[in-house]
Amino acid sequence: MKISDMNWRQVEDYLQTDNRAILPLGSTEQHGGLSLSVDSILSEKIALDAAEPLGIPVFPVLSYGLTPYFLAFPGSVSLRVETYVRMMRDILDCLKRQGFRRILLVNGHGGNQPAASLAIEWMADNPDVAVKFHNWWNAPRTFARVQEIDPVASHASWMENFPWTRLPGVIQPAQQKPMVDAARLRVMGPEAVRAYLGDGNYGGYYERPDAEMLSIWSVAVEETRALIEGPWA
């Protein structure tokens, strides 16, 4: 359930019987012909779909992350690492203060990896709280399903093209785009990244049948729900 659909008294009542919470982590960045909010849309929806039958509150998605390489694409917004880590620490401190002791971070953006390192460091200072960091899209079962469907999958390709990340009136190319050279990409500045990527897709088909996408989603929801259920330290 969304924390935005609760008031503070309801949260206080919830904490009398459970201390789990979920925080989705996203980004605002180019995704080719898909929404700039792909990572935020997917992480929040995965969290909500997984948590709903368990009655666990899901906090609003943190919709800005670390994406400096895409700054030449209009609409992409990146925080500095220092800013992001401090913000994550503040959020975790607040959740602990209020009584949450088992926190799942559902991450939808690869660039947010510093949040995982921060969580480990933060737990060392707060041994009475358990924090799990979950990259939903490349978790073992979910990524295995992606690979079964099509091993050529990447940023802004078919693997992020769900009914809820598409934009009305935007028609995706039918062909398969050759994969980019990831090693070359990692040493480029934002303008060079844009020139090299073109439309923003890293490689692969732009879309696949909805039945295949929904099968991935089903696995991802189940895998995320299993993390919520435990075990917890």
UniProtKB/TrEMBL annotation:
This is Creatininase family protein. SUPFAM superfamilies: Creatininase. GO terms for molecular function: hydrolase activity, acting on carbon-nitrogen (but not peptide) bonds, in linear amides; metal ion binding. Keywords: Hydrolase, Metal-binding, Zinc. Its cofactor is Zn(2+). It comes from Szabonella alba. It comes from the Bacteria. InterPro entries: Creatininase-like_sf (IPR024087), Creatininase/forma_Hydrolase (IPR003785). One of its GO terms (biological process) is riboflavin biosynthetic process.
